Amino acid sequence: MKYLRFILLLFFCGPALAQTTIRQDPAIKQMVDEVSSSNIETIIRKLVSFKSRHTLADTTSKITGVGAARNWIKAEYERYAADSHGRMTVKFDTSTQPKGERVNTPVKLKNVLAILKGTDPRDTRIYIISGHYDSRISDIMDPNGDEPGANDDASGTAVSMELARVMSKHSFPATIIFMAVAGEEQGLLGSAHVAKRAKAENWNIDAMLNNDIVGNSHGMETDLKDNRSVRIFSEGVPTIDSRNEKNIASLIALGGENDSPSRELSRYIKEIGERYVDQLDVKLIYRRDRYLRGGDHTPFQQEGFTAVRITEMNEDYTRQHQTIRTENGVNYGDLPDYVDFNYVQKVARMNLSVLANLASAPPEPQKVGMVTSGLTNRTQLKWDAPANGKKPAGYYVLMRETISPYWEKKFYVTDTKADLAYSKDNYFFAVQSVDGEGHESLPVYPKPVK
Q1: What is the distance between the alpha carbons of residues 215 and 40, in angstroms, rounded to a whole number?
Q2: CA distance from start to end of the chain
Q3: What is the DSSP string of 415-438?
Q4: Inter-CA distances, 148 with 38, 53, 71, 77, Å
Q5: Looking at CB atoms within 10 Å, which of 137, 155, 203, 331 has the fewest?
C-alpha cells in the first residue's frame, strides 16, 4: 500500500517512448521467469511430428494427422491441470463445419480449452489466450502433404500451452482460458465457433490475446534480424460499433477513434510486457490485422469483445503456407529449425505478465464519465466502483496529449472522482482500477456526463 500513497507522474523525453513503471509483483515475475524456451521447443517439435494438422487431415491415426495432434494437446493440458488442485478443467469445444469454400466435405472441428477457474465467485471476468494448431501448405485444400506449421502456428499454440503449464500452479480471482483452436487456415472456423458461443452464453470476456506467428526473428527480403520487437495489432473503430451510425457519430464527436477497448488493451500490453520482460520492444500497430488479412481475434471483435493479434515483427513468407522444397536455391517450408525458440519464450513471457496482472487486478471502474456541465479549463471525471469482484484500493487517472500513442501521466486517487488542472480540450483521459499490490485493470475511456 505504501507506494500507492504517491502520485505517479511519469514524464518522457519524447512521444516515441512509452511509460515505464519500476514496480513488479514478485510472484508474477517468478512465473514469467519460469517460462521455458526448452519446453516451447519440445511442444513445437511434437506438433510438427504429426506431419499434417490440416483441418481436413486424418482423425483416426494415433500418431499422425489432426486428430492425433488435438488429442495430444488435450492430454498435455490435462497433465498441467494436475497441478491446479482441481481449478483447471480441460475439454474439447466441438462443432461440425458444413461443406463450404475451403471445406470440401462436412468436418468435425475440435478446439481445446483449458479453463483455469477464478477463485472469486463474484468475479465473472474471463481472459483468453489462443493459438491455432491447424496447419497448411501451398495448396490450401491439400490435407495429405507434410505440413509442419512450426511457426504458423505451432508457435502460438506453444505459447498458450506453456502458459497453462506455468499458471496452473497458481490462482487468480478471474478466470483464464488457455485455448488451441482448429480451422484457422480454412477461414477462422474454430475461433468463430467459440466467439459465437461466448456471445450466446454471455461470457464476460474482458480481453482475448491471439498469438499467431510468433516464432521468427528474421525478416525476408529486408534481412532484418530482430529478436526483441513484437507487434500488437488493434482495431480503432470497434467492429461492432461500425454497424451503428449513432456510435460512429459519438466516436467522431469525442475524438475517440484511437481509444477503442482494443487500443487500450494494446497499450496495456506494452506497458506491462516491457515492465516484466527485459529487451522487449512492443510495437503498437494501429490496424485490426496485417494489411487486408485476418486472424482468430477477428471473430471475437465481431461479437463485441476486446481482442488483439500478437505477431512477430518481421515475417518470412518462405516459411508461411509453403510446400517443403528448394527452388532457385531458396529453401521453403515452415520447419522448426527456422523457429527462434528464445524469441517465442520472450513473447510468451510478455503474454503471461499481461494475463497474470489482469486476472489479479480489480475489475474496471464502471460508468466512467467526463463531466460537461460547464465550460472550464479543468477536467472533471467521475465513475462508479466495480460492482463485483475485488474492491480497488484506488484508481489511476491516465492522461496523454492528443498526438501521443501512449499514456504519459498517471494520477492516483482513492475517491471515485477527480478534478485535474488540465483541459479536456487538450488531452485524452482514462481511468483504471488498482489494488494494493499494484495490479491494474484495463483503462476505460470516459463518456460525457452532466
Answers
A1: 10
A2: 33
A3: SSEEEESS-TTTEEEEEEEE-TT-
A4: 19, 8, 17, 21
A5: 331
Q: What's residue 298's pLDDT?
A: 97
Give ∠ CA 289-291-296 in degrees, rounded to 5. 30
pTM attached to this predicted model: 0.93
Dist CA 424 CA 253 (whole Å): 13
Domains in the chain, CATH or no CATH each? 2-18+363-449 (2.60.40.10), 35-360 (3.40.630.10)
Name the 3-class secondary structure at 63. coil
Grid coordinates given for 227:
529478436
DSSP string, 91-124: EEEEEEEPS-SS-SS-EEEEEEEEEE--S-TT--
Residues 63-80 as b/e (b if ≥16 CB within 10 A, e otherwise) read: ebbbbbbbbbbbebbeeb
CA 412, CA 433: separation in Å to the nearest integer?
10
Q: Give the residue among 86, 84, 90 at the shortest CA–CA distance from 71.
A: 90
**Listed residue (222, 172, 224, 179) closest to 197, CA to CA:** 179
Of 162, 177, 157, 191, whose CA–CA distance to 69 is shortest? 157
C-alpha cell at 165: 503449464
- Tens digit of pLDDT for each residue in 398-437? 999 999 999 999 999 999 999 999 999 999 999 999 999 9
In sequence order, which ranges of 49-169 are alpha helices (DSSP H)? Answer: 65-81, 155-167
- Grid coordinates standing for 367? 460508468
For residue 323, how far is the Cα from the chain centroid?
29
121 closest CA partner among 81, 173, 168: 173
Identify each DSSP E strand in 347-401 by its residue range. 366-371, 379-384, 394-401
Residue type, 190: G
Q: How does strand 88-97 pair with strand 107-116?
A: antiparallel
Specify the DSSP element, H or E, that contains 273: helix 261-276
Please name the amino acid found at residue 146.
Answer: D
pLDDT digits (tens, 9 = 90+) for 271-313: 999 999 999 999 999 999 999 999 999 999 999 999 999 999 9
Maximum alpha-carbon separation in the chain = 71
